[in-house]
């Protein structure tokens, strides 16, 4: 009986610190996971806002094409009138 008590006390002295260390490690891992998740969400939000801004902007190249087309038409009309 005395030897069983010794084994139990020695085992508890070993298991308790290991269990607390494992619990601390699990908490640290969870905090690390939450930080990474937050960083990913922030990056995703930046990408979404950038895409929203880009879709709100008018396409400048199409406007330039329209204006250059209008200039060509005006030049063609002026050439016809000059002849």
Give an overview of the whole structure:
The chain has 83 residues and is mainly α. It has one domain. 94% of the residues lie in helices and 0% in strands. It is built from two helices and no strands. It is rod-shaped. The termini are far apart. The model has no long low-confidence stretch (mean pLDDT 79).
Major sheet characteristics: none
Shape summary:
rod-shaped
Measured as a percent range, the helix fraction is: over 70%
> How many structural domains?
1
- Average pLDDT value? 79
Number of strands: 0
Tell me what portion of residues adopts beta-strand conformation.
under 5%
Structural class by sheet pairing and helices:
mainly alpha
Helix count?
2
The SSE order reads HH
Instruction: Calculate Rg over CA atoms.
Output: 37 Å
Q: Provide the low-confidence segments as ranges.
A: none
Ends: how far apart?
Answer: 123 Å
């Amino acid at each position: 009986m005395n030897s069983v008590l010794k084994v139990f006390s020695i085992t508890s002295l070993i298991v308790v610190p290991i269990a607390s260390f494992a619990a601390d490690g699990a908490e640290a891992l969870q905090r690390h996971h939450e930080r990474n998740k937050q960083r990913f969400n922030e990056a995703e939000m930046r990408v979404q806002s950038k895409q929203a801004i880009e879709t709100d902007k008018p396409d400048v190249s199409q406007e330039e094409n329209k204006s250059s087309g209008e200039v060509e038409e005006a030049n063609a009309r002026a050439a016809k009138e000059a002849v």
